[in-house]
Amino acid sequence: MEAAVVSATQGALRILLGKLGDVLSTRYKLLGGVRDEIQELKDELESMTACLRDLNSSDDDKRSDQMRIWMKQVREVAYDAEDSIDVFCNQLESSRSGESRGGLARHIHKMVGVLRTLKLRNKLATEIQSLKSRTQKVGDRRLRYKMDAAPEGGSTSSPNGVTHLSSSSYADVDRRLPALHGDASRLVAMDGKTKQIADFLDEAGVARLRVISIVGFGGLGKTCLARTVYDSSLVRGIQNRAFVPVSQTYDLRSLLESVLRQLVPRPMGEDGTGTKKEEDPLHGIESLGVSQLIDKSIDYLKDKRYVIILDDVWRSEAWENLKIAFPDNGKGSRIVVTTRSHQVARNCCSSSNDRIYEMKPLSKMDSEILLFKTVFESEKCPSEYDHLKSVCEAIVGKCGGLPLAIVSIGGMLAQRQNKTEADWRRVSDSLGSEMQTDPTLEGMRRILSLSYNDLPYHLKSCFLYLSVFPEDYEIRRGALVRRWAAEGFISALHGLSLEEVAQGCFDGFISRSIVIPVQLASSGEIRSLKVHDIMLEVITSKSVQENFISFLGHNNQHNNTARHHHDKIRRLSIQPGNGIRDRDFSSRSLPHVRSLTVLGGSTERPAAITFSDLKLLRVLDLERCRWLSDGDLKDICRLSLLRYLSLRGTAVSRVPDMVGKLKGLMTLDLRETLVRDLPRSITQLQNLNHLMAGEYVHYTRTHSVKQFAFYDNRAVTAPPGGLGAMKALQRISFLNVGGSPHALRELGELSQLTRLCVLQTDRSSSWEHFGDSLSKLSSSLRYLSVMQNGFDSSQIAPLHFLESLCSPPLFLQRLHLVGNLSALPPWIPSLVNLASLSLRQSYLGAQSQMVQVLGKLPSLVSLKLFYGSYTGSGLLFEKDQFPRLKQFVVDYLATLHEIRFQGGAPRLERLSLALGSGKRVSGIESLLILKEVELYGENILDPVVEEVREMARNNTNHPTVTREDRPKEY
Question: Can you say how many angstroms the Cα of residue 106 is from the centroid of all Cα atoms in its chain?
Answer without folding.
Answer: 47
